[in-house]
Amino acid sequence: MVTGGGSGIGLACARRLAEDGARTTIIGRTSAVDAAASLRAEGLNVDAIECDLADVEAARQVGDRLAAEERIDMLVNNAGIIYREPAETHDPREWERVLDINLRSVWALTQPLGAAMVGRGFGRIVTIASLLSFQGGINVVSYATTKHAVVGMTKTLANEWAPHGVTVNCIAPGYIATNNTSALRDDEAREAEIRSRIPAARWGEPEDVAGAAAFLMGPDAAYVNGHTLVVDGGWLAR
Ligand SMILES: NC(=O)c1ccc[n+]([C@@H]2O[C@H](COP(=O)([O-])OP(=O)(O)OC[C@H]3O[C@@H](n4cnc5c(N)ncnc54)[C@H](OP(=O)(O)O)[C@@H]3O)[C@@H](O)[C@H]2O)c1
To answer: How far away, in angstroms, is 163 Cα from ligand 1 center?
Structure first.
């Protein structure tokens, strides 16, 4: 199960997990339905559930239903948005929207699906965090708040669910070339500034993150728990 797999990192994760043999479902808006159809056309076992994750109650209903009716062994909480505006003028409605999608809906899905995994004695949960789980950034107070929060949520769930065979981890991508960062890449000076600070000297690709997700989902990561795996070309180490 991959949320927000209609584009970018989520789409790469859905493709990679399906290629690795998982029966994969994308949860999201119209783009999720379209992405699932095109992955199916490539011969991959992918379907979609339409749900606007800005509607936390709808996310909760989907989570409850899937927990009761399906066997979901792996969950990638990927859907997320960013809103850039200085703190003094950060629109309270946008603050709520960022919290709803990036944090509250993550919990609304993870609680019932994780509880079902605990009941079955196996599960893998990965949430896409960010460099802004470690740094504050500028003009992104709502986003940085949510990305710090999901790391805290992950550590608690990892502690509680590890004895039941359920691993819970995060991936913190660096600067990845997706819609999320198109405004930064469209600004030539900013793009060059960012790239020059990345030791790997390039923007990350969604597939870089999907590889890390495949690792955390796979048997080699059975003893990896409560970890935030940074996939950033060396940005944080610099
Ligand atoms: N790109 C980076 O450099 C970077 C770095 C750190 C962390 N991240 C994180 O990586 C995750 C994926 O982002 P991305 O970079 O791949 O950008 P993206 O291409 O914009 O992907 C975001 C996905 O979230 C979905 N989404 C947004 N609002 C939604 C809603 N209300 N309901 C359901 N789905 C919704 C989008 O679907 P729609 O097509 O319907 O909008 C899209 O599929 C996010 O959590 C982001 O914070 C990205």
So the answer is: 31
